[in-house]
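Teaching note: in complex prediction, the entire set of molecules is handled at once rather than each chain in isolation. The prompt given to students was simply: 'Predict the structure of this complex.' The entities are:
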Amino acid sequence: MSITVRVPAQLRPLTGGAGEVTVEGSTVGEALKSLDADHAGFAERIFDDEGGLRRFVNVFLADEDVRFLEGLATPVTDGQTLSIVPAVAGG
Amino acid sequence: MDFVTGLRCRECGRAYPAEALHVCDYCFGPLEVTYDYEAVAATMTRERVAAGPRSIWRYADLLPVHDPAPVDLGAGFTPLVRADRLAAELGLGELWIKDDTANPTGSFKDRVVSVALTKARQLGFKIAACASTGNLANSVAAHAARAGMESVVLIPHDLETAKITMTSVYGGTVIAVDGSYDDVNRLCAELTSEQPTWAFVNVNVRTYYAEGSKTLAFEVGEQLGWQAPDHVVVPIGSGSQLTKVAKGFEELWKVGLLDEEPHVRISGAQAAGCSPVATAFAEGTDAIRPVKPDTIAKSLAIGNPADGWYALDAIRTSGGSCASVTDAEVLEGIRLLARTEGIFAETAGGVTIATLAKLAAEGVVRSDERVVALVTGHGLKTVEALTGSVGPTTTIAPTLEAFDDALAEIDHPGGTSSARSPR
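The expected output is the structure of the full assembly:
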């Protein structure tokens, strides 16, 4: 599966400045691991010590928070977009 | 000059300069402003505060930006009202309402926006933007107009009519998004990477913005004669306000403005239709599960509260509590406050008062405590919520007879009109 990953400004130094990159994988977790394989440094920035997402890292698949889906195990389909977004809120 | 020493990540502790940064580059943790408290303590006296403007800027020494002409509509220094009639209804002793409905655009958001746009202007931003559940939208549009800045405000499409009107009237760009607040927030968080020259006050200027909420604690302390209360009840949307109120009381002590060390219990108030923090508190866990909000308290309808963990931590370490109330209880809370104290709050204020009532009934908020409840927005913003539950007592023909009949019907203590009173 070919997945587009939208990268926030804070992590663009890892992608040579690119805001979007393409990775392979059949789940959200696989796609993010493949992102780290292609652009070293992503894993330590977005995963905690237990291998889950850091608590201030939000990941959205097709604009839905993956925590409302199956988290890192959520299946992805070809051409979908994954967004990594720092958690900020306040109405 | 200000007394800021820099920014520090609340998660991993990395230090950053006081620039246009909002999350830790390494772990995405939120950044916190740090101050030289010794220098503040040497400068900031009760007399200096008292001689300052009747606004949040009287506490400028503990704010993250200094500007002799801040972006200011007069936010803050709102009334702290002794609420004896409400206290009697709830079985409480000394109760105070911090009436933040009195702010320029009718909510506490004027505090944070005045700070955020003053700092944004200093950092060179020309466009003010935000993701908002309504109150922030009102405030950003108004303060941007005041400062001569352009504004771009993003809101969920289904906000209350008054909040949309009160934002649009200032002439900025208002973009209604077909989605929830959490969708709008996600969109804005992504937009900050694409529009780095825009000051999204609650995203990329958030570190400074959030500091404005400390002024709620500063004012309560000053208005109580430089004493801290025993217990404060605070509504929770993102959780930011609650953590900053806690920080505010600590700072007053740190810089020597209080006589006694504060031990303020802080309790959180949420609507049952959006209560991720209250749920985590009840379950005794740190894991805050995001929810899809469904409540009339739209200004608190944040299903994924970014500062939820810190709010939970502040509640637990202070010995406070956290509870949630139904929409029916929210409406009753609004009416109770209006009926007993003459203050008309928006739905978020109804959440605070209903939660206060619940915690008082449970004995969590006690009658021997000096209690402050934060009422953070004006009822005119959310009048639709009361449609059907309040209205004219009766409707009559314009005659004395109809008037007397109506008064008899509703058994009014004023009796009938004097012209036709029986002798």
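Point out the following to students. The first strand of chain B starts at residue 4 and ends at 9. Chain B touches chain A through 47 residues (CB under 8 Å).
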